[in-house]
Design goal:
Layout lengths: L1 E5 L5 E5 L7 E5 L6 H9 L6 E6 L2 E5 L4 E2 L7 E4 L11 H10 L8 H8 L14 H14 L4 E5 L7 H17 L4 E5 L2 H7 L2 E6 L2 E7 H12 L6 E12 L4 E6 L2 E6 L8 E7 L3 E4 L10 E12 L4 E8 L7 E7 H6 L7 E6 L3 E2 L2
The structure holds adenosine-5'-triphosphate.
């Protein structure tokens, strides 16, 4: 899609993006960077000055030809910050609305109910639902229209932290099982890290970076995350479990890590977050160390992080898919080890967390 839009207040949007037709694409960026405006253009709720939008081979917008498919003709589902359910209907009535709007495909109510765990809520009034339940019903209603694309605009921002954690696994299930592409607007780093396959990083109405979430986080994470959140995301799978020590070995392109076992069986897909503050560097292979994870790496880049610290970008030495790590060490240590790009080192990963 290509979008150009100029607002009277001075804001302008200028995007040119080709996105994969699968998985979750997160539009991530600070407040006012244009995420919602971009989503509204895709939905046809806002008309860009110039725009070309093609979704799955179907043209929704081509301003050069004066073509603008109205919102109601775009096969999309839109989930807002606050679930916009009909208050006078119960959950079943709200879902029936979605079914009525479906484009003639098969009836998928049982499947969608199961996917979002809302079967037990069908007879409840919507006023009595928690924020998380309301959003699950809103997503179910959107799915029942059988959209080709699901748009979600900060669907968890009106929900308190405990409930957000409850609803995230449902969104992960949706991503993994529903096989419908999603454009997901958020400014919450934890949601982006858990859900995104592709990351579009927005700034001042422009795209600062776009690509697989792992790559964009490795390159741009230091600019966009708070210092304590700087790190990388690794996509991997459970290789084996050591029940004696309650550890699981997670393999990823570039090596493997032993992490606390969270019960997932071998071959399960997992996401692992390794924070820069939990990675240290040795120039020779440490012999006796309490650190369980030692990975041979090559130094790619050193960049000052503060007066006292540097961030070191590392490429895992046997990487087949370009996995990398970030290490935050003191400037004095970097000087003492004479670290420089191209140097072979050992990364010591003190801790890492499974994010799903
Ligand atoms: N209806 C409107 N009329 C005029 N200006 C608007 C309108 N809606 C948004 N804007 C402006 O357009 C710019 C982009 O807003 P937008 O809501 O797209 O950003 P955002 O990245 O989604 O922000 P947030 O995370 O706060 O929702 C902002 O400067 C905003 O003030």
């Amino acid at each position: 899609m290509r979008l150009r839009l100029q607002r009277t207040g001075g804001f302008s949007l200028d995007l040119d993006l080709s996105l994969p037709a699968t998985g979750v694409t997160a539009l991530f960026g600070p407040s006012g960077s244009g995420k919602t405006t971009a989503l509204r253009c895709v939905a046809g709720l806002e008309r860009p000055d110039e725009g070309y939008i093609e979704i799955g081979g179907q043209c929704w917008q081509d301003s050069a030809r004066g073509h603008h498919l109205p919102t109601w003709q775009r096969p999309l589902g839109y989930v807002f910050q606050e679930a916009s359910l009909f208050p006078h209907l119960d959950v079943r009535g709200n879902l029936a609305y979605g079914l009525k709007r479906r484009g003639g495909g098969p009836h998928r109510l049982p499947e969608v109910q199961e996917l979002l765990g809302i079967g037990h809520l069908l007879d409840r009034r919507v006023q009595g639902l928690s924020g998380g339940e309301r959003q699950r019903v809103a997503i179910a209603r959107a799915l029942l229209t059988q959209p080709r694309l699901l748009l979600l605009d900060e669907p968890l921002s009106a929900i308190d932290t405990a409930r957000r954690l409850e609803i995230l696994p449902w969104l992960e299930r949706l991503r993994d099982d529903a096989r419908i592409p999603m454009l997901y607007v958020t400014h919450a780093a934890d949601e982006m890290v858990r859900l995104a396959d592709t990351l579009v990083l927005m700034e001042g109405g422009r795209v600062r970076a776009c690509g697989p979430v792992t790559d964009v986080l490795l390159q741009e994470g230091p600019h966009l995350l708070p210092a304590d959140d700087i790190g990388v995301l690794l996509l991997g799978q459970v290789l084996e479990r050591d029940s004696r020590w309650s550890l699981a070995r997670i393999g990823f392109a570039g090596g493997s890590l032993w992490l606390p076992d969270d019960g997932k069986p071998p071959r399960s897909a997992v996401r692992v977050r390794v924070l820069a503050r939990d990675v240290s560097i040795a120039t020779e292979q440490p012999q006796a160390t309490s650190v369980q994870n030692l990975l041979p790496c090559e130094v790619v880049e050193l960049r000052p992080d503060s007066k006292a610290q540097v961030l070191v970008r590392l490429a895992c030495a046997d990487a087949t898919g370009g996995s990398g790590l970030l290490a935050r060490i003191t400037a004095r240590a970097a000087h003492g080890l004479a670290l420089q790009p191209g140097q072979q080192v050992w990364a010591q990963v003190k801790a890492a967390a499974l994010v799903e």
